[in-house]
């Protein structure tokens, strides 16, 4: 069946609800989690959690043990934590890359302005040097005046 352009399309009904979320706030949350996952505090907490888990399931009476020796449930919990941690860390890295890219572009723009300012000042200094070389200095003027005075004294002399 071909779609006709002179008639409106049928509205599609989906059973999946549309979830709207703010990607920026989710990104900030993922960065906070990723920062926490990269701390010594997290390692200490995780080590304590695993130690308590294993200790409880090794030393508790048999009717209180909930995860016997191969610790399959603990493995499942750690795998689940890792499966969520990896994408959150990647998302945080992507946001950091975006910030670094913006910072790089701002630095490049600032460097270009600095180079242009430096070139302008260099041209201005060169122009001032040229202009100063054409300006009469006091010593040059004094020597010229003395020479003129000598010439005048020589002409006013005996005739």
Order of helices and strands: HHHH
Instruction: State the end-to-end CA separation.
Output: 126 Å
Q: How many whole angstroms does the radius of gyration measure?
A: 41 Å
Low-confidence stretches: none
* Mean of residue pLDDT values: 88
- The figure for the number of domains is 1
Category by helix and strand content: mainly alpha
Number of strands: 0
- Biggest sheet record: none
Strand proportion = under 5%
- Binned, the helix content reads over 70%
What is the molecular shape? elongated
- So how many helices? 4
Features:
159 residues; mainly alpha; 4 helices
What does this molecule look like?
Keywords: Membrane, Transmembrane, Transmembrane helix. This is DUF1003 domain-containing protein. It holds the Pfam family DUF1003. Helix 1 crosses helix 3. It contains four helices and no strands. It has one domain. With about 160 residues, it is mostly helical. The longest helix has about 60 residues, at about 70-135. The model has no long low-confidence stretch (mean pLDDT about 90).
What's the arrangement of secondary structure elements?
Blueprint: H1 23-37, H2 40-59, H3 72-134, H4 138-156
Brief rundown of the structure:
The chain is mainly α. Helices cover 74% and strands 0% of the residues. Helix 1 crosses helix 3 (72-134).
């Amino acid at each position: 069946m071909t779609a006709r352009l002179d008639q409106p399309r049928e509205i599609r009904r989906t059973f999946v609800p549309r979830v709207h979320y703010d990607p920026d706030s989710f990104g900030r949350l993922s960065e906070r989690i990723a920062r926490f996952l990269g701390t010594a505090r997290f390692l200490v907490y995780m080590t304590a959690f695993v130690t308590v888990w294993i200790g409880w399931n090794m030393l508790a009476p048999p009717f209180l043990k909930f995860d016997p020796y191969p610790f399959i449930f603990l493995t499942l919990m750690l795998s689940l934590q890792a499966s969520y941690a990896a994408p959150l860390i990647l998302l945080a890295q992507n946001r950091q890359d975006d910030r670094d890219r913006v910072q790089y572009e701002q630095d490049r723009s600032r460097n270009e302005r600095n180079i242009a300012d430096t070139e302008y000042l260099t041209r201005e200094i060169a122009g001032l040097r040229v202009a100063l070389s054409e300006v009469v200095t006091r010593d040059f003027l004094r020597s010229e005046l003395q020479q003129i005075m000598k010439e005048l004294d020589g002409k006013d002399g005996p005739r």
